[in-house]
Design brief:
Layout: E1 19-25, H1 31-37, H2 41-47, E2 50-54, E3 67-73, E4 76-78, H3 79-91, E5 92-98, H4 100-104, H5 116-125, E6 142-147, E7 157-159, H6 166-177
Parallel strand pairs: 1-2, 1-3, 3-5, 5-7
Antiparallel strand pairs: 4-6
């Protein structure tokens, strides 16, 4: 990754260049997005430098054709996750894998040692209090194996942590905005 590619084209003398950012969560707890929000006052500082163009935190309904930085949280567990990851890779210049689920599969990948049919059996048939019907309408199909983001698309920046601390997320974004390649190991580690 060339961090200078993150910065948008040179701004006109009356405007400030802004970095476009898209985020989404896949299979996980959404805790990484909560850490993003935990940047508190620093979000206001970033607001002069970034435009969040797509995210579960904003009203945008579609991913723009070209985005400077894409942030994916969670693992790839179903067909919808897979589609989102591929779309982000296609449309984002720099792709960040945010959090332990995105980086290594973490908790969602705990089902990997089991056959998918055994997982369904345990979830829907072994518990008599639940309706034994496996939902098929409006629910994305599960993939046989849960994968981290880099298991299906190329990732440029890996930010481990469960969840990564707001300070680490702010550092990574600040480095990218400044046109530098961030070193996540300087600010976070797995499970931190």
């Amino acid at each position: 990754m060339n961090a200078t590619e993150v910065m948008p084209p040179q701004a006109t003398p009356t405007s400030t260049p802004r970095v476009t950012i898209a985020t989404t969560w896949l299979d996980g707890c959404s805790g990484c997005h909560m850490s993003f929000l935990d940047m508190d006052q620093r979000l206001v500082d970033l607001a002069d430098k970034i435009d969040i163009v797509y995210s579960p935190l904003v009203d945008a309904k579609s991913l723009p054709e070209q985005v400077d930085v894409g942030i994916l949280e969670g693992s790839i567990s179903n067909e919808e996750d897979l589609h989102k990851a591929k779309e982000f890779r296609k449309h984002c210049k720099v792709l960040i894998s945010l959090g332990d689920c995105a980086v290594n599969g973490n908790v969602p990948a705990m089902r990997n040692p089991f056959k998918l049919s055994d997982v369904f059996e345990r979830a829907y048939h072994d518990n008599v209090d639940l309706n034994p019907q496996i939902p098929t309408q409006g629910v994305p199909s599960l993939l046989p194996v849960v994968r981290p983001i880099h298991g299906v698309v190329d990732v440029d920046v890996f930010v481990p942590g469960c969840p990564p601390q707001a300070d680490a997320i702010f550092h990574i974004l600040s480095e990218l905005i400044a046109g530098r390649v961030p070193d996540p190991s300087a600010v976070t580690r797995f499970g931190a």
